[in-house]
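thought: fold this chain, then report.
action: predict
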Amino acid sequence: MAVPRLIAALVTAVLLVAGCTSGTANPAPSSGGASGVAGVTVGTTSSASLGTYLTGPNGMALYTLASDSATSSTCTGGCATAWPPLATTGQPTAGSDVTGQLGTLTRADGTTQVTYGGLPLYYWQGDAKAGDVTGNGVNGFSLATVGGAGPLPSASGAAPAPSSSGNSGY
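observation:
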């Protein structure tokens, strides 16, 4: 039981290091999440096990962080490298299946981040393609589902359990 968790932790560490050292591992900036994009559209996709969850303009899954609030993002520095914020320069637009409230907040670095139901939205640099949801349950992040945060994977899943301290771990 301990070996699978150790392997999962090592894989996560490698992905975090790769995200901090490579400018090409982050799908968000070149795919519609960059701060130069006005009025990004938030869409959805569905999974039998996860339900309907939010996606950015590039089709990649979006996540929320448990320690965030409606007025601030606690994910900065290395955290924001691994979890790129969904940024916009205009009012975000809801796709046809998005039933919650979209909004924005101003981050400490001055960029505008899209929120859903009052929580800031992020990509996970470990997701390689649309349909990947490998960040669900990692360091307090949950898949952003229509109607709220998504289900966390079981303790035996590949992703490590979120921190109970509310700290993003960065």
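thought: worth noting. Residues 2-149 form one domain.
final: tokens above.
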